Amino acid sequence: MSKKSFLSCVPIVLFCVSVAYAENILNTGSKSQPITINGDVVEYSADSQEVTATGNVEIISGDTKLTCRKLTVNTQTKEGTASGKARLEDSKGIIEGEKLIYNFQTKTGTVVDAQFRASPYFGKARNIDKESEKEFVAHYGYATTCSFNRPHYRISSKQINIRPKELIQTKDDYLYLGPVPIMYLAAFNQMFDEPMMHVSVLPGKRKDWGPYLLSVSRFNLTNNVEGRAYLDYRDKLGWAEGFGLNYVKTAVGSGDFKFYYTDESTKSYSNSSTVSRSAYQRYFMRLRHKWDIDKQTNLVAEVYKITDQKRKLYDPAANILKDYFYREFEKDEQPLSYALFHHSFTYSSFDLLLQKRTNNWFDQLDKMPLATFTLPSIQVGNSPFYFENNSTFGTFNKKYSMYPRTADDLTVTRLDTTNKISIPMRVAFFRISPFVQVRETVYDKGVNGSSTLPARSTFYSGAEVSTKFYRLFDVKTNALGLDLNGLRHVITPSISYSYNPEPTTSSNKLPQIDGVDMLTSSNAAALELSNKLQTKRKDKDGKEVSVDFVDFKINTTYAFAPRIAYGTTPIVLYNNTVVDTLDPDKKNKLGAGFSDFLFRCKILPYAWMRIEADATYKHSGVSSDTDHYNYNHFSTVNYDINFDFAPERSFGLGQRYQRKGQSQITASFQWRLNPKWKISMYERFNLKDYLDTSISPNVWVGKTSLEQQFTLTRNLHCWDVDFTLDTRKNSGTTIYVMFRLKAFPENEFGFNQSYNEPKSGAQ
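User: That's the sequence. What structure does it adopt?
Assistant: Structure tokens below.
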């Protein structure tokens, strides 16, 4: 072999030996990932115990990859120095710099003249210290969500702590728009799964407000406490201000606090065109809190306090929620204040509810407290019997409005327990579960506070029956683009029958607190028929999955000669027979028959199209109409049709119909015109005349547009800006501009979605 050919083999031999040796000496233990070194030239020095690689160097260890032009690694300390476009990349982000000192064992190090990318943030710094596998600290640099070398905006800081995919923390900051500093921030903290701090300003004009300007600013107080400040001006009402807090993941849970105050100065005009004002102090305070104490225990609480002098002194129908926070008013006109403690045992649960009226201007049922024990159906030993229990014990205080007081308050303590035994079984192709049930209710006082301690027993018996039929059809076609790969028709009928005679004590001898005290005899069967057409289609990953192509359900109840309920006013039966409910001797029986029919339907003809509808068919019942009884018609019909043609290209159409109410068509449309522009539209149109009871005084609404909203969105690289025109009947027109960071598109912290009204035993 010639000398030249021999020397040409040396780098290859050294490379192979060095790589094999480096993989052994750089392993940090049995759980460590093996390390692979690639390079144009790889050498090992036995004297210094160092591996040196030059050229296109690449080191792979698990999901971490290091690339550079030159690398030296000490086999004893596991510490290496990389230079020349050093780049450290893993699943959580990328750090780059001219020089990198890195320990492969501890996965810590320092990068000089560095830049980083930890989605959604980009940044540069003099140096970056990688303090652990999950965290690094940038010194004297900036962070931004803009990927340009010259970002549109940035937060310049002396120190930036980042835990990729979790949070970013900065200290001693300046906010820059382009090259211009516009704000100083002592600190900035941002959890990546929460929206960015922002300032929102909404100008507009409304009929009842006049010209207005609403503003809210959001800021971080600590790592897990976010603040909000409100400052609003309405020309006809004056100034209003408030503040709020969102706190998350604290030692005692998460919550939301909001306070809003106005010394409302209502502007009115006299005949001489002079302006006079009447002032009313109005404020709204809300606290929501949720604490997951452990996996089986939690605490949920809501407190509302509303002071409204306008309601007390001027207009009994006035409501600060309706005037200032209409969306919250739509959800609940008279919100409850309560605290609900819940604990789950292995086979049961316990709830303790405290519900207290904090606003004496509306009726409410206080529960101080209400304890509930729930035992779902559980098998009794090895027997075929199953037992379940639901028991409540509480003190109830039925309070009536102070302005004006409609009745005297009522206080009573009640124990109510229900015990049920069932025998689930299969007979042929039917699943049958016959049951017997006893409900016992005991009170501490009788009607009108009498000392007689009433008690009531109610016996129930019945059965639940269901089955399932299906048939397979060998259908495989793409006619009309339906993409049917086999078809299965599933029919599931079910009947739940229950009978109970008159309770041992009539309801007119019991204190009337809620529906529990109004129980009477019942003999009825609940019926449901479910129809499904199923096929197989490919999902986004190309995997074949089962799809409910059509899902149609019908529900109704058949009553066997039910008795009427007695109240304080006469009622009219469907045969026009008038029954005076004040006279028990005149009680009649309704004829046997079906109640209302409920229809629900969902159709998925295409992956991009969805149809959902529901309807109520009025069949029989008692009417407050003294002239005739209306039945055999659809009382409500609702449907929605949605088309999702592509991301950010969709159209939706829906209708809400009430036979003795409104009929509204809604339409929504959004379309991405090009990478820079997107348009969105929303329309709500009334199709028939109806009386709007949400307005004081009530007004008739004709065939007209109730709401129109048009939004034009401009893509500004790292920002989206929305130009919106919103017009609502009886509210006026609002024009607003909103800037949204693409990295954090959500503008509101939807904390209220985590809460529901208290329902003991339902968790």
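The longest strand covers residues 275-294.
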